[in-house]
Write a structure and sequence with these properties.
single chain, mainly alpha, Growth Hormone, Chain: A, globular
């Protein structure tokens, strides 16, 4: 099933080969979302402890932040099809172990922590493998539209998974809800058994994988980013956004109860508003494709996202519907920010480096979230919760504006990974023209 002869997208029949793979992964995401909801709800009901929930969040984040760069290096060395099969399979086996613990009545909190860690570890391999494989199977002109479709899918899961999970938990024991994930993992693995994924050629393809060679690959990924000023600037912006914006969304339940004097229904509507916005934005991007220069779409979306966050911060105690509109705007802009950037990386980054680069971007951003919480909590207690929405929204909008002014960012579509402007056709320098 392995194919190493070509790394070009699969001609005019690419969709016929890629659609089953994408559909299987979509089902897997649904199963994972249901498991996440069921486990968090179980911990909430059984403990009612914010410490337990915070620990669960941290445990699920650690593999991505600490081990992600090494996972990305291994993805670039190994057969990505086999990596996805192994990752989906290991996640399913972990869920099966949880099902057995629940069935026998021996489930402990540490079992759930361990399962969350192992599932996140599988995701640290599966996600970069899927992203890196996509650029080898999908023509470049369709990558932005596919990113839009992915964003729309995530929005649908944001809306559908919680109520579906709640409905299933009201009808079935928790272990049967978890068992659904095993079936969806099988749907993700099945197409991989029959679909060949091209593999980029590497000069060291015959070298044995050792800790020394993996560490060398990680360092090569870091140097690759460092030599590409545009990507380095985008990574720094992503890290700052996670540092300043993510805490605001962690405070959303408190904003609803303290500021708007609402309850679970009001919180649910805000989350649904975000999901609806993501779906609309994803569909818009999948149909439109964005501006010819992808960075313009992303920076414009970043400005709009900042405006939406500030709208929430400016909403008065009776301005709940204004906050709902702000959440929908944030959701609408999110695909316009992320979709073109990932499509650009899939287009520009050397195929044999994509696993490392994708996970470095995600790991660096993820590292900022807990740091942001440490800073945001005392600031929110001192100045009020809404102050953090204003800070995060203003920072987001300013970074979007600065992206138009920073040469290394606004010309990233014309850059080679070394940061030098070049034609994508012949490598000769080209002039920079706006759309």
């Amino acid at each position: 099933m392995d194919s190493t002869a070509s790394i070009e997208p699969q001609g005019k029949h690419w969709l016929r080969r890629f659609a089953p793979l994408w559909g299987g992964q979509a089902f897997s995401l649904l199963g994972s979302s249901l498991v996440q909801f069921a486990l968090v709800w179980h911990l909430t009901v059984q403990t009612g402890s914010t410490t337990v929930l915070a620990t669960a969040t941290l445990v699920a984040l650690l593999p991505q932040v600490l081990l992600g760069p090494f996972a990305g290096a291994l993805v670039d060395r190994w057969d990505r099809r086999k990596v996805m099969i192994f990752a989906d399979g290991s996640v399913a086996l972990t869920t099966l172990a949880l099902v057995l613990f629940f069935l026998t009545g021996t489930i402990q909190i540490w079992h759930i922590y361990a399962a969350m860690f192992l599932r996140a570890l599988g995701g640290a391999f599966q996600w970069p493998a899927m992203q890196a494989s996509t650029s080898l199977m999908v023509p470049q002109e369709h990558l932005s539209r596919l990113s839009g479709a992915n964003q729309a899918l995530n929005g649908m899961l944001t809306i559908a998974a919680p109520p579906l999970g709640a409905l299933l938990l009201s009808l079935l024991p928790v272990h049967w809800v978890l068992a659904i994930d095993i079936g969806t993992a099988a749907l993700a693995i099945l197409p991989l058994l029959f679909i060949a994924i091209p593999r980029p050629a590497r000069s060291d393809s015959g070298e044995m994988v050792t800790p020394k060679s993996v560490w060398r690959d990680v360092r090569a990924g870091l140097k690759y980013v460092n030599r590409w000023p545009g990507l380095m600037a985008v990574m720094i912006m992503a890290m700052l956004i996670n540092l300043l914006v993510n805490p605001a969304f962690s405070f959303l339940p408190l904003l609803v109860t303290r500021h708007f004097k609402g309850g679970a229904a009001e919180l649910g509507w805000l989350e649904s508003g975000l999901g609806v916005g993501v779906i609309v934005g994803g569909l818009l991007l999948s149909v439109w494709g964005g501006f010819k220069r992808k960075v313009i779409t992303s920076m414009s979306g970043l400005i709009g996202m900042g405006a939406g966050i500030m709208v929430i911060g400016l909403a008065g105690a009776k301005g709940y519907w204004l906050a709902l509109a702000g959440m929908a705007m944030i959701g609408l802009m999110n695909p316009l920010v992320n979709g073109p950037l990932f499509a650009m990386l899939q287009t520009k980054v050397d195929p044999e480096m994509q696993g490392r680069i994708f996970i470095l971007v995600i790991s660096g951003s993820g590292l900022m979230s807990p740091l942001g919480m440490l800073v945001a909590a005392p600031v929110a207690d001192w100045l009020g919760i809404q102050a953090w929405y204003l800070v995060g929204g203003l920072a987001c909008a300013l970074m979007g504006l600065s992206g138009f002014l920073i040469k290394s960012v606004i010309t990233i579509d014309e850059q080679n990974p070394g940061g030098k402007a070049a034609s994508p056709l012949n490598g000769q320098p080209v002039s920079v023209v706006s759309d």
